[in-house]
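>> received
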Amino acid sequence: MLKEFKSLLPYLKKYRWWYLAGFICLIVTDGAQLFIPQIIRSAVDIIASGDFPLQKILRLVLILAGIAAVISAGRFTWRFFIHGASRRIECELRDRLFEHLTGLSSAFYQQNKTGDLMARATNDMNAVRESTGMGMVTFVDGVFMSLAILAILFTQNPRLALITVAPLPLITITIISMGSLIGKRFERVQAGFSKMSDVAQETVSGIRVIESFVREEHFSKKFRTSNDEYRAANMSLVKLFGMFFPLIGFLAGITTLLLLRFGGARVIEGSLSPGELVAVFAYLDMLIWPMIGAGFTVNLLERGSASLKRINEVLNTVPEIATGAEAVNETPVGDISIRNLTFSYPGATEPTLREMTVEVAKGETLGILGRLGSGKSTLVKLLPRLIEAPEGTISIGGRDIRAWDLQALRSAFGFVPQDSFLFSETIKENIAFGKPDATEDEIRKYAEVSTISRDLKEFPNGWDTMVGERGVTLSGGQKQRIAISRALCMDPPILVFDDALSAVDTETEKQILEHLLNERKGKTNIIISHRTSTLETANLIIVLDRGRIAQRGTHAELIAKPGLYADIHRLQQLERERAE
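>> returned
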């Protein structure tokens, strides 16, 4: 159980003084509580004697008031330090987890669902916080109080103490035997929460598709199923935990019966005063909490261990793509060279790209055309190392892409994917996403290049209109044009259009390309498109077929000779003529 907490040692070390101050305050508070039974013993003996002057009673009341003040101050301070440390650890661990997630490759996200990762960053983090906060408190509190109370009892009445505490080892055995069961069931609870979160996230993200296919009932049923499984896992844990404390309470209650039997007999015999019997009662009652607290400790540590295991699984995942030890931390500029590139996805039976060689000079435009699945998107993802190419196959500015700092390499690219992802911000903030300090003039300038500026009157709040999650309030063409403005605003050395004009009409496409070429003079562009009209101005066009370069040349050269490019160009011309 405790091996998972090794990953928290740096945080515990960092906040060791917080914990030390908190534990000192906790022990002072517990020490003050230990005096209360002695004050009660004195008060009962005074009353039992039949002579209780007001002065003596007032003195005891004042002492109790002082003890209460110490306990109140102590409880506030240990909560401030210990819970404050656990909250800070939770915050820093969550930051670390999020930062680590941003550095993992797309392959990781293909294997792990979003809802599960969100559960680890929220629900599991809460369990870790409880284990480093209240878990620590119950452990230190339980150990100190148990040892102190047992020491007092055996010092004052060793024989009576031995009889009354005899059931306590049974409580210890119960706690140890049931602790591992609690941990396993809590792990199932967390897994159930992850599954339920994933169903909810997937449903909300795909609500437009779900509604268009009238699949609301299916997903409602799917969520009910996962919700019922989560409830069942929780009930399994609750049943065990619900039996746990009553059983401990029952065993602790036996000590009270033993005290009544043997302690009461000694009071009748006169060998034990009524005050001493009441004090022993108070100490035994106080001893029940450390026993129950031990159960809390085991429960919280088991929960924290199960959750920390799930968090560590993510943190221990090594990024498949990372910056090398001697990487050049500069923005890459220069020619793009692809030589003998063959690439296969993990587990694939055949390569996605085969023996590909192509040179793109700085400032030129490369056009790429190919059928679905021919490897177009894979090729452009390899360039900024979104997926990893074999070493020595791709270079920029005369250096292998692995020789560049990863962030510097990716900052050289402006990407406009076919499926344009927009954030739940304003249109202006989405355009300035890659350049947060962009001026109003720059935003308007690139909005005009993409022609999104002509739709300004449709937006209720102009550039300050919120686009909704993933741009849900916009049309496909509007999202693509905002994404184009976003990429252009970065003014990247290399601009990649991955079929980014598929959702706009031909006339708009023509306007965008004219503005784009004027704006991008002297900079490198890579344009993927299924329309030959989009590729007309490219300096070089390559046609991919089953991962290979089947044809290469300019637009004029390719339409003049038989092949896939000429066939597609001819078909698209016929379609335009029919439309006219």
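>> The beta strands are 336-343, 353-360, 365-370, 394-396, 399-400, 413-416, 494-498, 524-528, 540-545, 548-553.
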